[in-house]
């Protein structure tokens, strides 16, 4: 894994795992402290964490194989279902990623998990070049996170992502 070295990384939103932050330009997670990431992975028994690490390493095929095995053992896992969409996003199958996430939204609607899914859906839209849909999803994620009094780091992550999508829209007009 290659860790990013940048003095302004401390302003980057956390990405939900030690040693990983969200790049505010690409809205993708990146390793910022490889030692911290490796230590957290060593302590983890959750296959979703290893899948995430494989995606960060650019090893989508290996991530998909591990995901298939993990989903067989735990087909209802929320995190694994999110990472199924992430594997599709990482392999540029954006239609499939967004389809899975929209389906998942219908299952978790009205819960705190809905904000999580909207955040991932916004990322999939953003990376695919659909800044309008990304802004809509990030807005929904931000609104839900505020409504559910989510952790400040999650609210910040949604706010940064929404602002980035709006900036892209502004530059396009």
Automatic annotation (TrEMBL):
<protein>
    <submittedName>
        <fullName>Tetratricopeptide repeat protein</fullName>
    </submittedName>
</protein>
<dbReference type="Pfam" id="PF14559">
    <property type="entry name" value="TPR_19"/>
</dbReference>
<dbReference type="InterPro" id="IPR011990">
    <property type="entry name" value="TPR-like_helical_dom_sf"/>
</dbReference>
């Amino acid at each position: 894994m290659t860790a990013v070295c940048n003095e302004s990384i401390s302003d980057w939103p956390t990405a939900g795992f030690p040693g990983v932050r969200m790049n505010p330009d690409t809205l993708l997670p990146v390793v910022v402290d490889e030692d911290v990431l490796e230590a957290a992975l060593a302590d983890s028994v959750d296959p979703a964490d290893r899948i995430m690490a494989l995606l960060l390493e650019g090893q989508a095929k290996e991530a998909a194989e591990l995901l298939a095995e993990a989903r067989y053992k735990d087909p209802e896992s929320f995190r694994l279902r999110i990472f199924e969409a992430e594997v599709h996003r990482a392999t540029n199958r954006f239609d499939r990623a967004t389809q899975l996430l929209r389906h998942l939204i219908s299952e978790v609607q009205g819960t705190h998990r809905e904000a999580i899914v909207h955040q991932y859906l916004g990322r999939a839209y953003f990376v695919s070049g659909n800044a309008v849909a990304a802004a809509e999803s990030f807005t929904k994620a931000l609104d839900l996170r505020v409504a559910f009094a989510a952790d400040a780091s999650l609210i910040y992550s949604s706010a940064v992502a929404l602002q980035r999508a709006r900036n892209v829209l502004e530059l396009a007009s």
